[in-house]
Specification:
Alpha-Beta Plaits; 29% strand; homodimer; 5 helices
Chain lengths: 202, 202
C-alpha cells in the first residue's frame, strides 16, 4: 500500500530559510527508508507510517528548538487508489484483518504511552478522512474517543481535533489515528498542523 | 448544510504578527455573512462557499502585498454529518439535484473565467476528499480533468494537485472543486495550501 506525506515547514522569521536548512539534517537517519522530493511548496516523503512520523517529528523538533514560532503542515495519505504500490512503503502497522474498534483504541493508546519524550511542547490540530466506506463517521468517532483518553487531547474544534502536549506524544497520537482507524486496506488521509512557540496564548 | 474552514496565515518574517493584523481588515466586508472565531492555531470561518473563498482570497492577497513570503492554509469542509446545519451557510452553489459530470465541469470552468483579477501571483496545492460514497475517485478524476482545462493547472503531485496563477483564478478553481464535485448533499473536504513570494524557484 502506498503511503506518504506532503510536508511544509513554516518558521515565522526572516531567517526561515536558515531554520529550514538547519532542521533538514534531522531527516538524515530516515533517508534510506523513505523517498524525499522537494519543490517550492512542500517536501514529499514516501515510506511507511512509522518512518514518516518519526521523520516529521524530528524535523519539527529541530526547527522548534530555534525558539522561533514554527508550524509544520502535512497532507498524509495511505491507500490512495490512484497511487501505485511501492515496496518502500511496506509495513505491518495497519494490523492485517480488521480488528474490533475497542482493540484498535487500546493499541493506539499503547503507542502514545510508548512515545519518546522530546521535551518540545506542541499544539496541533488534525482532521482524519476515511474514504470509500459508508461508515466513515463511525471510524472518526472511534478515533476521537481514543484521542480523548490519549493524554494529549486538547478539545474538539469545528472540522478538526486539537492536541496539546509533548511533540513525541502528539505525533504518536496522529500516527495511531492514521494506522488504527479506517479499513486496513482503505484510503485514509490526514490534514495535520503542528505549532510551536506561538506568541498567541491559547 | 454546514460549511466553513479553519484557516491559518503564515508570513515568513519576524513581523508576522504585524502582517497578519494588517491583513485582517480584508475580512471586514464579509463579517456580516460569516462567523469568525480565532485561536492560537487557526481562524474558523463559517459561511457559504462564495463568502468563504472571497474572504480567504482577499486575506491572502492583502498579506502577499507585503512582499514577504506568505502561506495560507485552509481545512475546508461542507456537509460534515457531525456538524449542525446553520442558516448562515445557506447557498445555492451546490446546484440542487446531481448534474452530469460534464455539465459540472463546464460550470466550474465558467467560474474560473469569471474570477476577478487580483494581480497577485500564487502557487497552490490542494487535495479534494469526497466521503461516504463508493465512487469518490470518479469525482476526484472529474475534478482533475476540470483543473487541467482551467488555465491554472500546475501539474499533478502525489496526494494533491498543483495550481499556479493569479490568486483570483486559483481561489475560484478551488471553490469550484468544493462546490461542483461530490454529491450536493455529501461530505466533501479540501486541504488547501496557497503560497506567494517564495524565494525558492519552482
Amino acid at each position: 500500500m502506498y503511503s506518504g506525506a506532503q510536508i511544509s515547514l513554516y518558521p515565522m522569521t526572516g531567517d526561515f530559510v536558515g531554520i529550514i536548512l538547519g532542521a533538514l539534517s534531522a531527516l538524515d537517519p530516515y533517508r534510506e527508508r523513505m523517498q524525499v522530493e522537494t519543490d517550492d511548496l512542500s517536501t514529499l516523503l514516501v515510506g511507511p507510517p512509522e518512518v514518516l512520523f518519526a521523520a516529521m517529528r524530528d524535523l519539527f523538533v529541530a526547527a522548534a528548538r530555534s525558539g522561533e514560532h514554527c508550524v509544520l503542515h502535512a497532507t498524509l495519505s495511505r491507500g490512495c487508489p490512484g497511487e501505485p504500490d511501492d515496496a518502500i512503503c511496506y509495513t505491518t502497522e495497519y494490523g492485517g484483518p480488521r480488528q474490533p474498534l475497542e482493540e484498535r483504541k487500546a493499541a493506539a493508546l499503547g503507542s502514545v504511552s510508548a512515545a519518546p519524550v522530546t521535551s518540545t511542547s506542541s499544539a496541533a490540530q488534525f482532521s482524519l478522512y476515511v474514504m470509500g466506506t459508508d461508515d466513515h463517521m463511525d471510524e472518526i468517532y472511534g478515533c476521537i474517543d481514543f484521542l480523548k483518553q490519549s493524554g494529549v487531547f486538547g478539545g474538539a474544534k469545528n472540522f478538526c481535533t486539537r492536541l496539546d502536549g509533548d511533540a513525541g506524544a502528539v505525533f504518536a497520537a496522529v500516527e495511531a489515528a492514521l494506522c488504527r482507524f479506517g479499513p486496513p486496506e482503505g484510503h485514509v488521509t490526514i490534514d495535520l498542523t503542528v505549532s510551536a512557540n506561538s506568541p498567541t496564548r491559547r
